Amino acid sequence: MRDMIDRLNTKYPIWNAGMGAGIAGPKLASAVSEAGGLGVLGCGAMQGADVAAMITETKVLTKRPIGANVILPMSDGSDVAACFDGGIDALVLFWDDIQPFVKDAQSRGIFILSQCGSPDDAVRAADAGADGIIIQGIESGGHVSSSQELVPNLENIISHVKPLPCIAAGGLSTGAQIKDILSRGAKAVSLGTRFLATHEANANDAYKNRLLASKSEDTVVTKLFDGGWPNAPHRVIINKDYTTWVANDSPDAPNRPGEDEYIGCIAKTDGRELKLSRYTTMPAVKDFTGSIENLPLYAGTSVDNIHTIESVENLFKILVTEIVKADK
Ligand SMILES: Cc1cc2nc3c(=O)[nH]c(=O)nc-3n(C[C@H](O)[C@H](O)[C@H](O)COP(=O)(O)O)c2cc1C
């Protein structure tokens, strides 16, 4: 087995989650890698040409290892192909079977990981030849593949896939939590929401500020925002579209309030415009024009400990100081 953790050789066992639609874009991923972690690009819901451009830009900003994340149920294959051709170091796949991609990744020297929520999924990925497993807990922001809390899930899955390296995700935002999770056998942590609240994350300011104003009890796991990826549970901060849906007795599609109405658009760098309709899975990226009350505000229970928007560099200083303090 290839020893992924040793060969990636990051200074700190801290990865950013590859938050899709480019929320984890070149600025965030390169800053995380430069700060000593593993920066992971969020390629979910993107076409191959856009993914290729993100990888090229990231590789100008850092020479350190980088990863990329692809959401398989949203993939047309061009995103994975761009990752293979772009020369990334680690490919994180989410939600479906990784087996069709293992050989290609390995022949190119790219580590391949599966983000999993259950022992069955993790064992399937291990048997297919994964170099590592990212274990999700139900605390996670964004799409959640787990019905279990992180700690029991982590300990259970580690025992099933030993000696494969496992990385923990879900609800983590402080150095003390990271220290605790590492002491339970995780080789690294993958943080989503905590890195969403950084200057480098490609999310719009209203969304970032909502993180600071929210507590874990303001988040909920739902299947409401399903445009482009149906029947997949996700944790979001409760907003107007969610409360309106609940006030209307939570009807199924296509009978939800304002179904298919236009709610805003995302301006692309090449002048294209992506029009969005209500209940889309698309998050509020920086170039979104519209109201965040109409988009999924993906966030984990980790919002409880997020009170400031930081630069990635400063966030690493804070987390490392907290880890050292928790050691004493
Ligand atoms: C805004 C946002 C977008 C996300 N997008 C993706 C994605 O595209 N692919 C993926 O595998 N996971 C995605 N996730 C889930 C993360 O991989 C990870 O499991 C989660 O962020 C961990 O929980 P935390 O947010 O409390 O750190 C996303 C999470 C957030 C908060």
- Largest beta-sheet characterization: 8 strands, parallel
CATH architecture verdict of the largest domain: Alpha-Beta Barrel
Which percent bin holds the helix content?
A: 25-40%
Order of helices and strands: HEHEHEHEHEHEEHEHEHHEEHEEEEH
Write a structural description:
This protein has 328 residues and is of the alpha/beta class. It has 2 domains: 4-202 and 307-327, TIM Barrel; 205-302, no CATH class. Helix content is 34%, strand content 19%. The protein contains 12 helices and 15 strands. The strands form 3 sheets. An 8-stranded parallel sheet has the order 1-9-8-6-5-4-3-2. Strands 7, 10, 11 and 15 form a 4-stranded antiparallel sheet that branches. Strands 13-12-14 form a 3-stranded antiparallel sheet, with no helix packed on it. Strand 2, helix 3 (48-61) and strand 3 (66-71) form a beta-alpha-beta unit. Helix 2 (26-34) runs parallel beside helix 3, helix 6 (119-128) packs parallel to helix 7 and helix 8 (175-183) crosses helix 12. The radius of gyration is 18 Å and the shape is globular. The two termini are 35 Å apart. The model has no long low-confidence stretch (mean pLDDT 97).
Record keyword descriptors for this entry.
328 residues; alpha/beta; TIM Barrel; 2 domains; eight-stranded parallel β-sheet; four-stranded antiparallel β-sheet; 12 helices; 15 strands; 34% helix; 19% strand; binds flavin mononucleotide
